[in-house]
Design goal:
The protein is of the alpha+beta class. The chain folds into 2 domains: about 15-45; about 45-105, 2-Layer Sandwich (Beta-Lactamase). Helix content is about 45%, strand content about 20%. The chain is built from 3 helices and 3 strands; from the N terminus they run αβββαα. It has a 3-stranded antiparallel sheet, covered by helices on one side. This is GTP-binding protein gtr1.
Length: about 110
């Protein structure tokens, strides 16, 4: 699984800690939402965050209950939409691998037959 790809222009980026910055911003946002609407911080989730510019397109989307995925693509609506669609199509497979989701399924009562 590819978790990070860099190119030669990466050295020009002055923010080498950008992943930590984005993570911190998202955690703060989730805590603010939870406080505002009065729910536990772990229950406050968003579906997707999109940023589109002339130089790149970026989105963060839910992959599993415990995992968000950040994607940066060239400025092309087609590439952007295909990336989002591909993630949506494989989300179920990652749900199978997610420990928290497995625990929920195992804890659920068996359907009544009869």
């Amino acid at each position: 699984m590819v978790t990070h790809v860099t190119r030669g222009v990466e050295a020009e980026n002055p923010y080498t800690d950008r992943f930590e910055r984005i993570s911190s911003i998202l955690k703060t946002h989730k805590q603010s939402i939870a406080k505002h609407i009065g729910i536990p911080a772990g229950s406050a989730n968003f579906t997707e965050l999109q940023i589109k510019t002339g130089r790149f397109m970026f989105f963060i989307t839910r992959l599993t209950d415990n995992t968000n995925l950040a994607v940066v693509v060239p400025p092309s609506e087609q590439v952007f939409n295909v990336a989002r669609l591909n993630i949506r199509l494989v989300r179920w497979k990652f749900d199978e691998l997610d420990i928290a989701t497995k625990k929920k399924v195992e804890a659920a009562p068996a359907p009544a037959t009869g």
